[in-house]
Specification:
The complex is a heterodimer of chains A (584) and B (135). Helix content of chain A is 41%, strand content 16%. Chain A has 24 helices and 18 strands. Chain A has a 6-stranded mixed β-sheet, sandwiched between helices. A 6-stranded mixed β-sheet of chain A has the order 8-7-12-9-10-11. The two termini of chain A are 24 Å apart. With 135 residues, chain B is α+β, with helices and mostly antiparallel strands. Chain B has a single domain (3-127), classed as Alpha-Beta Plaits (2-Layer Sandwich), CATH 3.30.70.20. In chain B, the strands form 4 sheets. A two-stranded antiparallel ribbon of chain B has the order 1-9. The chains are: A alpha+beta (584), B alpha+beta (135). Chain A binds chain B through residues 64-65, 67, 95, 99, 148, 150-153, 201-206, 210, 214, 221, 225, 278-287, 289, 310, and chain B through 14-18, 21, 24-25, 28-35, 39, 41, 45-46, 103, 106, 123, 125-126. Strand 13 of chain A pairs antiparallel with strand 2 (31-32) of chain B, so a sheet runs across the interface.
Chain lengths: 584, 135
């Protein structure tokens, strides 16, 4: 039934379904539904690793119905940022949850021993022992739990050893090649002793006016295939950015010391596609195939003993484990990505920490006493050894690395982190920095400041204007996330199309209503952040960002300060509007 | 020349499952896997596409003791006696197909059979599925 939410309590193993139709009617689903549930269910000031921290998985209503819509939204309190934990993943999870009959799945409590969850239709939930899965990579866990069911769609999510060990930026793999990255969902699962979740959806998704829905589907599908709006993602994928950004000196290199990399060609989307790409992969109902997968061959002994690993590659891991670590060999980039996947680490944050450690070592702030292996620009083998230690945490230094913090606050001025989250790979200018700072999940995808910088290349960016544009964009993205639209398809799903698509499947929105719901959701995210202690005044911007010229010249600290002051006032306005609309 | 559905370029499949859902939409008016006559499953680095190949001498029809499946012109089968399927417990048609291309609809107690409408191929952007004249 529309509005059904599956609750599972791992402490006592009980599960039940509650209908929250009113939330779906008001907030669509996805992030709109998730943030309401988070504000309700997460106790104020809770330790992110406490059993009381809920995990909410919410796919929007477009998932399983429209092309290029597959993003399930995860919300929880983040160990990395200390406030809003939000992460989006593609793959089959969203459709499987929808076919199982739910608008969201909420996991509460914690198990005393390792378990995995088996979720099927009609409230069928089993909590199974997972001791034998302990220490396995997420991919091997997924392979172990794979059970073909001809009557339904199955999706498996799993954590690796990093999640089991509570690394603050441990990720969660969805079906092997999609990830809930960034804000540490893997560690929250680990704290619940939850190794994996298998969802099998054997039900159906129906719409009342089939003909009307079909017409919208066909129109959107044509646009996806023929308009060229998604060509970038289909062709080279996001790594197309490597050369584009390098050219405008916005490709962060060696811990943001500069914006260009002499080996950019070697790790470009063009190089990977021409030489290493073996297949493309995609999400349900999306013909694009944005996920580019390379084959990494490793001859590990004489007589051509070989192991072959499929490694997905995207722009962000290439920047984080490539240019930003001075790694210019594409195979080394893949090796580093593979080791992050093996242990279940967010590749971006791992890169951020390794880059900081290399510079701190270079400057003599830390030594081999701490690092145990020498961090050196371009030396992938040593970085791989360090990644293993981030997961194993053999000393105090690596504990701090695993928490995403500068060891003993050393070299904080060059730790490329804002709001707890590592910066994405865009040294484009003021809008990117302000955008990351004010984004509810401190992600480049929150509001695409990098896009604004690139549009205004060579022009003066007014911080006040930038903040207004970024907030408008983020509020709109809150609508897309609530529907389930993949942000790669944002040019397909303009406001008019979203309205048509929503109303064809039984929602009743108009122009103004849609804009308002975006603002409300953004406001509710900040309501949670403020409640958990976030404040703009104490947000630190690393000095490195101001030192290194961006694609748009040097960023002025005064401009950032001014932008954040305006943002604070604007966001508080949104929180007030959201609170007035929905009193908890 | 007969017009039918053919898995033409199986190695080009990226696993979007659009055909699976489009099929259920045509056959049952909903989006689901269980109502679909197509299955896509990951095998090695690629995908396996399981769908009726429109045989000239269909093993499924031969296996049916009730003659519920009739050879259709151009290949494949049509279900002519769904009432007979209701009582059938052994479902020999499902086992008879070497591809395993027939699925079982548990609610309506009958096999899910490709109707050779070709809509799936229309939505297969990578030309894995082809619907048209076959030599």
């Amino acid at each position: 039934m529309i509005g059904d939410i599956l609750f599972i309590n791992l402490t006592d193993g009980l599960n039940w379904v509650e209908n929250r139709r009113e939330l779906v009617d008001k907030y669509i689903g996805g992030s709109g539904l998730a943030i309401n549930l988070l504000n309700e269910l997460c106790p104020e000031g809770v330790d992110p690793f406490a059993p009381e921290n809920p995990i909410i998985l919410a796919p929007g209503p477009f998932i399983g119905l429209y092309p290029a819509c597959s993003k399930t939204i995860a919300m929880f309190k983040s160990p990395l940022t200390g406030n809003l934990g939000e992460s989006h993943a593609g793959g089959k999870l969203g459709v499987a949850i929808r076919l199982a009959g739910y608008n969201a799945v909420v996991i509460m409590g914690a198990s005393s021993k390792p378990v995995w969850l088996d979720i099927k239709d009609n409230g069928e939930v089993k909590v199974n022992g997972a001791s034998s899965l302990k220490g396995l990579s997420s991919l091997h866990t997924i392979m172990s739990l794979d059970a073909v069911n001809p009557y339904g769609l199955q999706s498996i999510v799993a954590i690796g050893p990093a999640g089991e060990n509570f690394v603050y930026y441990a990720n969660v793999s969805v079906d092997g090649y999609n990830f809930f990255g960034r804000t540490g969902l893997g560690a929250v699962m680990g704290a619940k002793n939850l190794k994996a979740i298998r969802v099998t959806g054997c039900g159906e998704i129906s719409v009342k006016d089939l003909d009307r829905y079909k017409r919208v589907f066909e129109k959107v599908y044509e646009d996806v295939i023929k308009s060229g709006k998604m060509r970038k993602y289909h062709d080279l994928g996001t790594p197309q950015n490597v050369l584009v950004l390098n050219k405008i000196k916005a490709l962060p290199t060696m811990n943001f010391k500069r914006g260009y990399f002499e080996y950019a060609e070697n790790i470009s989307g063009e190089y990977f596609a021409d030489n290493l790409l073996v297949r493309k992969s995609t999400c349900p109902l999306c013909p694009i195939g944005c996920k580019h997968v390379a084959m990494l061959k490793n001859f590990f002994a004489e007589e051509h003993e070989v192991e072959s690993i499929e490694v997905g590659y995207d722009y962000e891991p290439i920047y984080a484990l490539g240019s930003n670590l001075g790694v210019g060999d594409p195979l080394d980039v893949l090796k580093l990505r593979a080791v992050c996947d093996r242990y279940g680490l967010d590749a971006m944050m791992t890169g951020t920490m390794l880059a900081w450690a290399t510079e701190a070592y270079e400057n003599g702030l830390i030594s081999l006493n701490e690092t145990m292996v020498e961090p050196r620009w371009g030396n992938a083998e040593n970085y791989i050894e360090m990644v293993k230690r981030i997961v194993a945490m053999p000393n105090e230094f690596y504990v701090s690395m695993a928490q995403g913090k500068a060891y003993r606050n050393l070299g904080e001025e060059f730790l490329a982190v804002i709001g707890g989250n590592g910066l994405a790979g865009y040294h484009t200018g003021l809008a990117f920095i302000i955008g990351t700072a004010i984004g509810a999940r401190h992600s480049h995808l929150s509001n695409a400041g990098y896009n604004l910088d690139q549009k205004l290349l060579g022009l003066t960016i007014d911080p006040v204007e930038a903040v207004k544009a970024l907030i408008k964009e983020e509020a709109w993205r809150c609508v897309l996330e609530s529907c389930g639209v993949c942000l790669f398809a944002r040019d397909i799903y303009g406001k008019h199309t979203v309205l048509e698509a929503l109303n064809a499947i039984g929602f009743n929105y108009d122009d103004e209503g849609l804009e308002r719901v975006g603002r409300l959701i953004y406001g509710l995210k900040y309501k949670f952040k403020f409640r958990e202690g976030f404040e703009f005044q104490s947000l630190k911007i690393p000095n490195r960002i101001f030192e290194t010229p961006t694609a748009n010249g040097r960023i002025s600290p005064e401009d950032v300060k001014k932008g954040l002051e305006i943002a604070d006032a604007e966001v508080r306005g949104l929180v007030a509007e959201a609170t007035a609309y929905h009193v908890f | 020349m007969p017009i039918k559905l053919v898995v033409k370029n199986p190695d080009r499949c990226i696993g979007c499952d659009t055909c699976v859902f489009i099929c259920s939409r045509e056959l049952a008016g909903v989006l689901s896997v269980k109502h679909s006559a197509i299955r896509i499953s990951r095998v090695g680095v690629g995908f396996k596409i399981t769908v009726c190949s429109g045989c000239d001498e269909p093993d499924c029809a031969s296996a049916c003791p009730y003659e519920a499946l009739r050879l259709r012109s151009g290949g494949g089968v049509e279900l002519v006696g769904p009432d007979k399927c209701e009582k059938c417990e052994s479902r020999p048609c499902l086992d008879a197909c070497a591809l395993g291309a027939l699925q079982w609809d548990d609610e309506r107690k009958r096999p899910v059979i490709c109707i050779e409408c070709g809509v799936c191929a229309k939505f297969c952007h990578h030309n894995v599925l082809y619907y048209g004249e076959v030599v």
